[in-house]
Amino acid sequence: MGDNAVATSQPLATAAGLAMLHKGGTAIDAAVAAAMVLTVVEPTGCGIGSDAYAIVWDGKELHGLNASGRSPAAWTPERFSGGTTMPQRGWEAVTVPGAVSAWIALWRRFGTLPLSEIASPAIRYATEGFHVSPTIARLWGMTGPELSVQPGFADCFMAGGRAPRAGERITLPDHGATLRLIAETEGEAFYRGELAERIAADAAAHGAALTLDDLAAQEPDWVGTISTAFGDYRVHEIPPNGQGISALLALGMLDRHDWRSGGPDATGVTHLSIEAVKLALADAAEHVADASFMRVTPEALLDPAYLDRRARLIDPAAAGDPKAGQPGPGGTVYLSAADAEGRMVSFIQSNFMGFGSGVVVPGTGISLQNRGAGFSLQPGHVNEVGPSKKPFQTIIPGFATGAQGQPEMSFGVMGGPMQAQGHLQMALRILGHGQNPQAAADAPRWRVNGGRKVAVEPGFDPEVVAALQAMGHEIDVEPPEAVFGFGGAQIIRRLGEGYVAGSDPRKDGCAMAF
């Protein structure tokens, strides 16, 4: 608790954000510093070549930033003909990385400290070294060997032919030099200068389509937010191409049922929540894509009449296997920061699948995401791969405001398709039932896996598991080592004139305040 707060998935990143606040910087300075550090100390979830989104309360109003990148202009459906799914690794999975553009856009609009100062903790850890934390060492060891065949990966991340062990000190000097150049040029080197040339040259050397023109065209979009009512609050998300609308659909449907009749762990409330998520994910899979290609608008999906119709499909006593509706016309890191002047930021950046594509541009430390894997190869689908198009994205920052529009909470849950489901579970616990952020982050979670299949963490109440099974849910109690499948959460809740922050122990989460 404190007047200023930072919550991230790694203690060194939290400390970097807090250092910016101690220097008189804004919550946004803190968030950008933490995001840069996370590319160094948690490369299993993000990198300089990630994508990013943010929701910012500037002290007076809410802003939404979509800094996801587009596909190369040469990506046509014909390029991927013969396949049934998009490539998940290698250069053919890489879209234009947007995280750097997010850092710069946020800093230019809301930052006060010099960019060189904001970048200094990340540069120091990269060049002078840091101790690999146990969780990151485990993830590194799980996926590193598989990705060693990808261009540049082994040279950057497998020194001595192996992943680093927990507690081992490593340096990433190329990574540090790249961050320094990004800070010195305010991102220009990455999209239109020396770094862009090296990225494009490596793409060409491996027969990939990404070009200098593709990189130079990257522009982050200030898109505002979409929202829905839940209880006494409004929950906000970034509009598509992300899956944030899934969380809003699920919360809107749940709010049309009696979720107040029991606590967040009660069988009936858990069942209603699971069923609402199923319906929401079905709609997202059918309708969500690059906003300019969607055939139905977010407003149509969130229309109260449509939510009424979808909510009526939930059977309070039995599990269902719903399909998408049709409205009428109409390995990720998450962090949050808040400052004493009232600013709050909800920020997320990601490679997508752990290290992402596995591609690392030689001599730069730039590991590239694999967001191209989010496209569909189904002909005619709204999310079908195409040129200069944003893919469906899983990463979503969340935010909640009160009845009078005042800021209440910035929050997020990491973990691919778990994210929208996690947003519902955090909103239900904190906004709906008044749990504190740490209790909500600690609580066991569930995850819809398709059809009637639902995975739960081992700490789930066995009596609730049995009751859900009796309702037709196919429950899989996953072992403790599968904890990453339930994501990690960071939350900052406004508390009077200050804040209370919580962070998830499933990863190396750390919340600090002063």
Supply the key terms.
alpha+beta, 7-stranded antiparallel sheet
Structure description:
- It is a single chain.
- The protein is an alpha+beta fold.
- It contains 17 helices and 20 strands.
- It has helices at residues 11-22, 27-41, 99-110, 115-128, 134-147, 153-157, 173-185, 188-192, 194-205, 212-216, 244-254, 267-287, 298-301, 304-311, 418-432, 437-442, 462-470; strands spanning 5-8, 51-57, 62-66, 130-131, 169-170, 221-222, 226-230, 233-237, 333-338, 344-350, 360-361, 366-367, 398-401, 407-413, 446-450, 453-456, 474-477, 489-495, 498-503, 510-513.
- The strands form 5 sheets. Strands 6-3-2-10-9-1-20 form a 7-stranded antiparallel sheet. Strands 7-8-13-14-18-19 form a 6-stranded antiparallel sheet. A 3-stranded mixed sheet has the order 15-16-17.
- Strand 16 (453-456), helix 17 and strand 17 form a beta-alpha-beta unit.
- Helix 1 runs antiparallel to helix 2 (27-41), helix 11 crosses helix 12 (267-287) and helix 11 crosses helix 14 (304-311).
- The longest helix is centred in the middle third of the chain and has 21 residues, at 267-287.
- The mean pLDDT is 95.
